[in-house]
Protein: Peptidase M14 domain-containing protein
Amino acid sequence: MVTFILLGTIVSNVCAYKSYSKHQLWRLHVENNEQVAKLLEFSRIAHLHDINFWSEEFRMNMPIDISIPPEAIDSFSEYLSSNDDKIKYDVVMNDIGAVIDRQKLLHKLRPSTFNADDFAYDKYHTLEDIHAWIDKMVQTYPTLASTFTVGQSYEKRDMKGLKISSSKLATKRDGTPVNQKKAVWWDGGIHAREWISPATNIFIAHTLLSNYSKDPTITHLVDQFDYYILPVFNVDGYAYTWSKDRLWRKTRSKTIIPLCFGADPNRNWDYKWCEGGASRDPCSDTYCGGKPFSEIETVQVSKFIGAHNDTIVHYINFHSYSQLWMTPWGYTTKKPDQFKLQDDGSAAAVDALGAVFGTQYVHGNIGATIYVASGNTVDWTSGTANVTFSYAVELRDTGEYGFLLPEDQIIPTGQETLAGELALLKYIEGHVYA
Ligand SMILES: *[C@@H]1O[C@H](CO)[C@@H](O)[C@H](O)[C@H]1NC(C)=O
Ligand SMILES: *[C@@H]1O[C@H](CO)[C@@H](O)[C@H](O)[C@H]1NC(C)=O
Ligand SMILES: *[C@@H]1O[C@H](CO)[C@@H](O)[C@H](O)[C@H]1NC(C)=O
Ligand SMILES: [Zn+2]
Structure:
């Protein structure tokens, strides 16, 4: 009988959707290196208190966003002011759970205003719906669209993508045709909770398909490149954000610690693996994995890119949030030799992006401008696979909603990001078809 009750408790815990009721989001203002060190030390035990860093790294003069459960609010506040050198903070969100609940309700109640092809482009979607949408695109645009898969995830979900490819030959600037068409890879959802990134890939893919042969710029750029688009990279984590925990980030593989799951798929690549800005603690959100490429998802994408790097010249790993258009390296603050070539593309992208609604992006190399993060995706695509135009993009916003970007920002984010991307593609086209 006792066993039964215990089992019942465990099962009900496992099945419940994680509550963030009365959890607060704090923005910390770190002013010196001692404060950075203090938070770094704290971050190693934060999960024991259910405290979660929304910001990936800590640096002086950069805001650090952290979620705090109600039972830790007083003690964490005391901890921050425990020295004379008090760490200042603002409460950005009073009740994260209430924001999640309101968004769920709006998702159900608000009629979609954007219903082309029977798919609500202004809403977030489950993995099943996204995969059904890919099939729908292939049915609707059979001469342009096809599916591809890079295999199955740890929990045996398909890592399903959409390929866009026209039958026209690519051309040089003077109009002469070239034999081998270059290709582009974009993905979203490598971090499960960053829902705007799959939604943006979906919006952009649909615009390329539906405006082909209508809009001259889009028609031209669809003829110039083949597009491999993987809207949801971390399929298991993404499914988990819909069924169990809206703020889950990592994969869902087992680790050596029974209650801690998953590795950070953006710290798991075998280029300068776990050298800095990554954790060896399986309970950490930036856990690099037990070894490089411990995660089946990163292995499979790396194999696909490696097998197609005779054509793939451009990679984007879409994330949120912070509004950044970044290039390698992540593992060091140093810049690669081709930094200017890469970063000039970022500059073109953020200019065009900002011209749409005035949204401001910062660009630069990951390590110096933003944070050191080793074993990351674009260091590998650039450093190992030699994909020159490799970018990591952090989409909207700058922390007002963070990962919980409301659905009414999906279309504007898609529109401005598309404008940035079209400018970047024109820039890349000028270099690869010279
Ligand atoms: C794509 O087409 C739609 C209508 O089909 C139009 O409203 C939209 O402006 C077009 N987008 C671009 C970028 O040309
Ligand atoms: C393609 O990627 C593989 C890694 O998978 C790398 O070893 C190889 O050098 C790359 N080829 C080119 C032409 O860059
Ligand atoms: C990497 O790509 C550049 C530009 O496409 C090319 O010149 C170079 O030979 C490639 N390096 C390797 C190792 O394949
Ligand atoms: Zn991310």
Summary: The domain at 114-432 is CATH 3.40.630.10 (Aminopeptidase).
